[in-house]
Amino acid sequence: MPPLLVLVRDLLLASRVTTAARARGVAAAVLRDPAALAGRPARRLIVDLNLAGAPEAAAAWHAATGGDVVAFVAHTDAAAIAHARGLGLATVLPRSALVARLDELVNVPPDPADT
User: Which phi and psi (to 5°) does residue 46 adopt?
Assistant: First the structure.
């Protein structure tokens, strides 16, 4: 099981996330379809709130797995931020903050059960 799932359509951002994860020795799986998230085990999910259906899929994934969710969106998209928080997504960052904190956010320790 990869400790990190990345639900984004932006290929450039997906590449930045997986490159940062690989540099830290963290396995990451990139998904582009929110429906593909169901049943996927991981310890953390990074999700683009502008992807249709992603906020709801991320909330359902969090409820099912208990994994961390780091959601991101443009800092000016107050409606998306409020919607995500209403769904129980506690960590909602502006895209710029996600990029600035990427090394920290991809640093997901492996599950002790996997070792």
Answer: -105, 125
Residues 27 and 59 sit within 8 Å (Cβ to Cβ): no
Average pLDDT (37-41) is 93
9 in Cβ contact with 51 (< 8 Å)? yes
Q: Which helix (H) or strand (E) holds 11?
A: helix 11-23
H or E element that contains 64:
helix 54-65
Does the model's pTM come out above 0.70? Answer: yes
Q: Phi and psi of 49, rounded to 5°? A: -70, -15
| CA 35 from centroid of its chain's CA atoms | 14
d(Cα 77, Cα 21) in Å, to the nearest integer?
27
* pLDDT above 90: residue 113: no
Among residues 84, 80, 86, the alpha carbon closest in space to that of 70 is found at: 84
Q: Cβ–Cβ contacts within 10 Å for residue 91, how many?
A: 15
62 close to 84: Cβ distance less than 8 angstroms: no
